[in-house]
């Protein structure tokens, strides 16, 4: 199947020279739409290699980007809390109420990547909740709806050489418990055989929660990042209904294949506009791009390419129910 997402002709829509301060890269933005304005919470990597999170705003979500004067989240330099000394990275944004958003991001330090949370009501200031998952852990997203009266998080801890998508739940967004594996890496030669992680916060649909996730394969010692789909039960977020056997978006354009880290497409945020999914993504760890797809096409693909059903049609069985 051909890639379902169509690259916007304006891509890349933001490059390092567009940043308001000297930057080596702009990448992996969280996304929100507030009062008709598209907001990207951009990871800006400075020329030291340290990243902060800064808001860029656009009326149409494509061009005319205006940057805020100050970062929304700059690495905490408090010696009593050294877990952001190397940067704040790869934000995901979930709207919790009319004017309340929770930001999950990676706190980077010499101790490894950790999951951190913050809350904002205006994208001008943010209140840190602190580290909620210790290293090595990242790729955190939070569902906007509670399940069994608890918040549900997807995250990707590292256990030895295994990197699966796990879930955890919380009453207060700070203390997380009851973990379990949601989607395991498939190992071997699979496109998501080396590691995987949740991408944008899942999209609510009438048939379940549509999750875009990234999978990684090692090719001749180099890592290749692609995007696939999974559909989660709308009433039980911890149950996978379907998962694509194939990727649906792969680095092909020159700006995706060449950069600080080549052959990477990596999303942290989408917007749903009618039946169209606008996916903002980092390309080659260097710039920010936009691609679009019909939601109906994505839902059709996740069923047609469902891994479990394809194996059953061939008289085989998946290694486990989650795969």
List the main descriptive attributes of the protein structure presented here.
five-stranded antiparallel sheet, four-stranded antiparallel sheet, mainly beta, 323 residues, 3 helices, Tachylectin-2, Chain A
What does this structure look like?
The chain is mainly beta. The chain has a single domain, classed as Tachylectin-2, Chain A. Helices cover 7% and strands 48% of the residues. It is built from 3 helices and 21 strands. Strands 14, 15, 16, 17 and 18 form a 5-stranded antiparallel beta sheet that branches. A 4-stranded antiparallel beta sheet has the order 1-21-20-19. The chain has a 4-stranded antiparallel beta sheet with strand order 2-3-4-5, with no helix packed on it. A hairpin with a 5-residue loop joins β12 and β13. The C terminus is likely disordered.
In the residues, how many domains can be counted? 1
What general form does the structure show?
globular
**Helix percentage:** under 10%
Order of helices and strands: EEEEEEEEEEEEEEEEEEHEEEHH
- Please tell me how large the radius of gyration is: 18 Å
CATH class: Mainly Beta
Number of helices: 3
Number of beta-strand segments: 21
> Structural class given helices, strands, pairing?
mainly beta
Could you describe the largest sheet, including whether it forms a barrel? Answer: 5 strands, antiparallel
Mean pLDDT: 93
Return residue spans where pLDDT drops below 50 for at least 5 consecutive residues.
Answer: 318-323
CATH topology, by name, is Tachylectin-2, Chain A
CATH architecture: 5 Propeller
Span of the ends, CA to CA:
20 Å
């Amino acid at each position: 199947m051909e890639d379902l997402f169509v690259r916007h002709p304006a891509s890349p829509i933001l490059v390092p020279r567009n940043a308001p301060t000297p930057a080596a890269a702009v990448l992996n933005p969280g996304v929100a739409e507030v009062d008709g304005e598209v907001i990207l919470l951009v990871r800006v990597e400075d020329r030291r290699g340290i990243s902060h999170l800064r808001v860029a705003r656009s009326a149409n979500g494509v061009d005319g980007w205006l940057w805020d004067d100050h970062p929304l989240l700059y690495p905490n330099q408090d010696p009593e809390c050294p877990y952001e000394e190397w940067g704040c990275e790869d934000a995901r944004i979930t709207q919790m109420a009319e004017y309340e958003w929770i930001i999950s991001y990676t706190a980077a330090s010499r101790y490894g990547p950790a999951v951190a949370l913050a809350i904002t009501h205006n994208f001008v200031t943010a209140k840190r909740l602190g580290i909620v998952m210790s290293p090595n852990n990242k790729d955190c997203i939070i569902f906007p709806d509670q399940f069994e009266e608890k918040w549900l998080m997807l995250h990707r801890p590292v256990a030895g050489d295994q990197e699966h998508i796990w879930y955890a739940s919380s009453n207060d967004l700070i203390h997380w418990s009851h973990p379990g594996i949601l989607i395991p890496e498939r190992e071997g030669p699979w496109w998501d055989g080396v590691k995987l992680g949740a991408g944008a916060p899942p999209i609510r649909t009438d048939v379940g929660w549509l999750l875009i996730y990234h999978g990684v394969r090692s090719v001749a010692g180099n890592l290749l990042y692609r995007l696939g789909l999974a559909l989660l039960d709308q009433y039980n977020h911890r149950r996978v209904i379907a998962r694509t056997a194939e990727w649906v978006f792969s680095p092909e354009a020159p700006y995706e294949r060449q950069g600080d880290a080549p052959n990477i497409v990596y999303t942290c945020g989408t917007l749903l506009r009618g039946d169209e999914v606008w996916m903002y993504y980092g390309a080659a760890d260097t710039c920010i791009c936009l691609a679009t797809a019909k939601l109906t096409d994505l839902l059709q693909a996740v069923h047609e390419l469902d891994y479990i059903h394809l194996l059953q049609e061939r008289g085989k069985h998946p290694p486990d129910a989650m795969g």
